[in-house]
Amino acid sequence: MRFFLLITFAVFAASCKNNTSANRPNVNNNSAANANKTVAAPAPAADKIPVYTYEIVNTFKHDPKAFTQGLVYENGFLYESTGQTGESTLRKVELESGKVLQKHDVDDDIFAEGMTILNGKIYQITWQDGVCFVYDLKNFKLLEELKYNGEGWGLTNDGTNLIMSDGTHIIKFLDPQTLKTVRALPVFQETGKPLFKINELEYVKGEIWANIWHSEEIGKPNHIARIDPNSGKLLGWINLQGISPDDVARDEENTLNGIAYDAGGDRIFVTGKNWKNLFEIKIKPKS
């Protein structure tokens, strides 16, 4: 997906005071005082971080030409953002068959990244163009373009704010009307080192689940991080190593990327860049 990584660093400010809501972080969309503040998460001991495994419940077809950057389940369908300059798209996909039912081609000079759905709108960010496309969910009509600073990688939402990753260890909570930063959340590995390359995101039962681009570089190939959205604390890892060996063997960039949660059915779907399959999985404690 990326051929180089912009190295960034952040100077952490005083910790924001958060509430204990399991479903939504404590944010104030109207308070400039909260913007750009960070919450430093103390590194827990390595043996305190649980590791989960998985069981494949169903396997579905996935377009092997889809360089998956964002994945959402909404009202019985999958919505997918695909990347690569000249190949980026927004799609509505039939889950059972993998058939693309609706598709919008992004301009050829744009590298599309993560996407999410909030209040009947699709938000699709871009890698290095600093623009978020906002579409009508029903017809993919472009409603507006919002600007932001820095790179765009993954995107999800907590029902109130957009939640974006930018390839660093900082996750940003954004006002969906303006894309102004409401809160910045640093995330650390269990070793205490920053968890860089946070990529595609999904909000699952009050947690942020995150793909880590080339997570094998930190000794966790095809692992998903589970993150507390209030503190940034690492809650656990989901080890999906080996879930689709034929896919990851074809190209080093065919990394795990794409998490979708069906809240109504309590189902998790995962796929990767140019993977031939999409999987419904059940998360299990590691035996």
From TrEMBL:
Which superkingdom does the taxonomy of this entry point to?
Bacteria
| InterPro entries assigned | QCT (IPR007788), Quino_amine_DH_bsu (IPR011044), WD40/YVTN_repeat-like_dom_sf (IPR015943)
Cross-referenced PROSITE patterns: PROKAR_LIPOPROTEIN
Q: Which GO terms describe its molecular function?
A: glutaminyl-peptide cyclotransferase activity
Q: What UniProt keywords apply to this chain's record, in alphabetical order?
A: Transferase
Q: Does the keyword Transferase apply?
A: yes
Looking up Pfam families in the UniProt record yields: Glu_cyclase_2 (PF05096)
Ribonucleoprotein in keyword set: no
PANTHER family, sorted: GLUTAMINYL-PEPTIDE CYCLOTRANSFERASE
Name of the protein described by the UniProt record: Glutamine cyclotransferase
What is the organism lineage in this UniProt record?
Answer: Bacteria, Pseudomonadati, Acidobacteriota, Blastocatellia, Blastocatellales
